[in-house]
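If you are new to this repository, start here. Below is one unmodified record pulled from the training split, so you can see the exact layout before writing a loader.
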Amino acid sequence: MSFVRFVLRGVVLPLGAVSAAAAIVAQGGRLSAHLDVLTHFAPVYLAGGAVTLVAAIFAHRRLLPALLGATAVIASLALMLPEFLRPQTAAIAPGAPGQIKLIQFNIARDSQGLEQRLAWLAAEDPDVLVVEDSRAIFQTAVTQRLGRQMACGKTCEVAIFTRTPATRIEAPRRGRKGMGPAITIAHLAGPQGDFPVVGVHYGWPTDVEGHAENSARMLQLMKDQPRERAILVGDFNSTPWSFSRRREDAALGMERRTHALPTWPANGLFGLAFLPIDHVYAGSAWATVSITRGPRLGSDHYPVVAVLAPRAN
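And here is the target side for that same chain:
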């Protein structure tokens, strides 16, 4: 058996079969939360299908790998395309009155590279910094060396650092069975009145019950917030092509300003992130100036930098 035939039969065909099967079964996420877990990895199935299609060119019998590859690609795109086709309000020009810069960053409980992180944050000079999984050494450095005020949740798993003190801080309990998301809410003074910045950190989607409770608790808490002025950011551990994220988007009634922006894993091969799991939402009172991804800073997440401005009345 030639090496090419061995690769096709032993590697490519199984890859195509698994990718096609997973992408098809993931469609069941519309009805099943357990099957919805598969939707998050749609880019992997897409890549597997693409490799199988390319390999079909070199196969002696091309029909099977071509069918498997095409099925994986089509089924994966059926999951992902709604995010890329999702309409978004146009960004406005920089320099709008009252604009704020907000950075969201899961630093993964790692104090390694502290000086690099602080140097980048000092250069960015955000008005609001929402951090998940930070340690006390990082929190102290930000407050003392960068001159920020800190608002903390029950466990400081989510910390919000602001240029000016918050007018009010909420640290809600985590709800039923303690399975609500880690959450902190800081109310800040703005040109159009106070507005809440809500930072959240969801558990992994593989914990199906816990992840669903994260979402239910967050939506419940957001009902008490002025959502047209609210900003909601965090590590949702959820991709935009999952059906649970689409349902949550609809229930929130706030525009998700991140648009298929991959943030994880930042510590993978060549820093090639492929899953958008860190998100920024803002109410209708906010216009988007820019949404960008920050550099690799030692975490398995990339930071997200959002610049927003109050909409003119």
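Two things worth knowing about this chain: The chain has two domains: 3-85, 100-310. Residues 3-85 form one domain.
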